[in-house]
Design a protein that fits this description.
By secondary structure, the protein is of the alpha/beta class. It has a single domain, classed as Response regulator (Rossmann fold), CATH 3.40.50.2300. The protein is built from 5 helices and 5 strands. The chain has a 5-stranded parallel β-sheet with strand order 2-1-3-4-5, sandwiched between helices. Helix 3 links the parallel strand 3 and strand 4. The longest helix has 19 residues. The chain is globular. It starts with a strand and ends with a helix.
């Protein structure tokens, strides 16, 4: 069974592009505009994967999401390649981090992490 994904991106064009790319691989894709909407949508749609623009959330929020939703995969995106920040995001609980404009890598990470959470839940 395909799972749901929720995405929070600062750039609406990127959000639309990602949503379109993800629709063929996930049961449903839900784009939100705030952390509050993100949390509500994760619960409502039982999302297993979120794609989160790291500029829209603090590392503390990434860590909180990982604790609040056990088994949730958090794929972070960022427009700049910053190894130190990416390492910090992974340490905070992100499953993966990809450049914002690399739709292929984001989709690959989301699919990989959705399969991983499904096999852990089984």
């Amino acid at each position: 069974m395909k799972s749901s994904v929720v995405l929070l991106q600062g750039n609406p064009e990127i959000a639309q592009s990602l949503a379109t790319s993800l629709l063929s691989s996930f049961r449903s894709v839900h784009a939100v505009r705030s952390m509050e909407e993100l949390r509500a949508s994760i619960s409502k749609h039982r999302a297993r994967v979120i794609i989160l623009d790291i500029e829209m959330a603090s590392l503390v929020e990434v860590e909180s999401l990982s604790r609040e939703f056990p088994g949730l995969s958090v794929v972070c995106t960022h427009r700049l390649a910053d190894e130190e920040m990416w390492t910090a995001a992974l340490s905070a609980g992100a499953s993966d981090i990809c450049p914002t404009y690399d739709t292929h890598s984001i989709l690959t990470a989301a699919l990989h992490n959705a399969r991983r959470t499904r096999s852990v839940a089984a």
